[in-house]
Amino acid sequence: MTYVHEAARHPPLAAYMSRLMNVIIPRSLVTPLAILSTHTPAFSLGDYTASLASRFADAGVNDALARVAQDGSSKYPAQLLPIVRSLSATTVADASPSSSPSPSPSPSPSPSPSTADVRALAFAVATWAAALGHPSLPIADGRRDELRTALRVREGEEAADAGIWRLLGAAGLFGADGHRGAPLAEAVAAQFMAIQREGVAAALAVVLADEKE
Hints:
Layout: H1 4-8, H2 11-27, H3 33-39, H4 45-56, H5 65-69, H6 72-95, H7 115-132, H8 144-151, H9 162-168, H10 183-198, H11 200-212
């Protein structure tokens, strides 16, 4: 694939894009869509995302995937992390008891967003990392050489997933969400390794299957 419209017309990728736009990202919105629709009666999420999907699939736009994929090291921290963190905050709020807490509540771990949601968001990061690590792909990123070096595994000297964990822990990328044990980081690492073993299509099939469970 070379152009955005080719990806948007690819059934599994179109299904993935639809799930992000219509299900996962709306859950992360600070202003729930029900409230937004009340104040803006003409707004329809379905109509809006359908118009976006139509534009993405328009060959006349002729937008290159290479352009969209550039500078992932700055786009993912700025655009994807807020979604993950908002979903986490929403889950915490939903899990809170309706009654007033006791004066000295016992500390407990914060709930995480659903595994399926995290895995879907992590897929985007994992495929970016896989592309970044591919020496023949023309990835334009100001930190490309640094991150490609981080991804490179010293065979026989370290674990096969050492590279992806170095990338996730790189300064200025994912912060605490890039550490071992963090739901996003664990999902990215698992999917990156699955892509290395089985390819992107198989990894995406697993993500899409989550929605049906």
